[in-house]
Specification:
It is a single chain. The chain has 351 residues and is α+β, with helices and mostly antiparallel strands. The protein has two domains: 173 residues, Diaminopimelate Epimerase, Chain A, domain 1, CATH 3.10.310; 145 residues, Roll (Diaminopimelate Epimerase, Chain A, domain 1), CATH 3.10.310. The protein is built from five helices and 17 strands. The chain is globular. InterPro entries: OMA_tautomer-like, PrpF-like.
């Protein structure tokens, strides 16, 4: 395999970038697959210099796709987060940014036929055992990545990709509120543990002695803040039924503050140490669900929109708009607008 190479498509999905593979082009044994992926991406190495990884958690990602056996969906999508400086490949979380590229990839690879000027692909997200529908332009029978839709965190514009979730965006912990409570006290700090697709721990920034308006670099360099967050994360994960998460990237830690630029809530999302330059798709949906719950952390800080209106999440480089419909502590529906673009399609040669 290292001699012949592996078929691969590199795509930007939302504000992330990753390598997309057909499952049939990878080993069926997960250990062999993960070893191959590490060699393809160039991990472990802080620069990933001997692979195609981008030396950042947001660009060291893999999507594995295959045709669904279930008539209810068209394709299955497995997300794999590849650690940059450790020999670890994990499926403990989902990725809503790479999800934006799954539909176009499925059409490009012939898994799903284009249906006209626009095509919808029903996607089963294996990581969270949930489903989504992605709709995107396919004039001439193939995805068209050009368009005038802009998303913060990505230069220029591209074609709109509408992603809809029928209820929640999927919960890997099995519940929107994994602890059963709107708030818990962890290590002396009030938190909300929530999972609408991305297990997260919401904390008011001021409860940790910061404003929530700091730059990602300033927060990453705050040694005491990171020590507190690490301790809270480990304890909160136990309460969420996630066990020992010391070697995983979830749950995410999200600092919340009142909005300052016309949004609903301001965020700083930890990955779990590096601070996100924006916020992930499922992270945004999870924050929106969390702060919509009466009594939850951030509910008193949020300028909640009217039902049906866009829910604007502020982040370090702009904002992220989602739509979410809540019924008390239940998510009835949610969705968002993303863009994606094919970067290259060919053969990758692993180390």
């Amino acid at each position: 395999m290292s001699t012949d190479g592996v078929r691969c498509m590199m795509m930007r999905g939302g504000t992330s970038k990753g390598a997309y593979f057909l499952a049939e082009d990878l080993p069926s044994d997960s250990a062999e697959r993960d070893d191959l992926i590490l060699r393809i991406m160039g991990s472990p190495d802080p620069r990933q210099i001997d692979g195609i990884g981008g030396a950042d958690p947001l660009t060291s990602k893999v999507a594995v796709i295959w045709r669904s056996a279930d008539d209810a969906t068209d394709v299955d999508y497995l997300f794999l987060q590849v650690m940059v400086d450790r020999a670890v490949v994990t499926d403990r979380q989902n990725c809503g940014n790479l999800l934006a590229g799954v539909g176009p990839f499925a059409v490009e690879r012939g898994l799903v036929p284009a249906t006209g000027a626009e095509t919808s692909v029903r996607i089963k997200m294996i990581n969270t055992d949930s489903t989504a529908r992605a709709t995107f332009p396919t004039p001439g029978g193939m995805p068209d990545y050009s368009g005038d839709t802009a998303i913060d965190g990505v230069p220029g514009t591209a074609a709109e990709i509408r992603i809809e979730f029928t209820d929640t965006a999927g919960s890997s912990t099995g519940a929107l509120l994994p602890t059963g409570n709107a708030t818990d006290v962890v290590d002396g700090v009030t938190v909300t543990c929530v999972d609408n697709g991305m297990p997260s721990v919401l904390i008011a920034a001021t409860d940790l002695g910061v404003t929530g308006a700091e730059s990602p670099e300033a927060l990453q360099d705050d040694v005491e803040l990171n020590r507190r967050l690490a301790a809270i994360r480990l304890q909160a994960a136990e309460l969420m039924g996630m066990g020992d998460v010391s070697s995983t990237t979830v749950p995410k830690m999200v600092l919340l503050a009142a909005p300052t630029d016309g949004g609903v809530i301001s965020t700083r999302s930890f990955l779990p140490v590096k601070v996100h330059s924006s916020i992930g798709v499922l992270g945004a949906l999870t924050v929106a669900a969390g702060v919509s719950i009466d009594g939850a952390v951030g509910n008193d800080l949020a300028a909640l929109p009217a039902p049906g209106e866009q829910f604007r999440i502020e982040h370090p480089t702009g904002h992220f708009d989602v739509v979410i419909e809540m019924d008390g502590r239940d998510v009835r529906s949610s969705g968002n607008i993303r863009t994606a673009r094919k970067l290259f399609d060919g053969t990758v040669f692993p180390r």
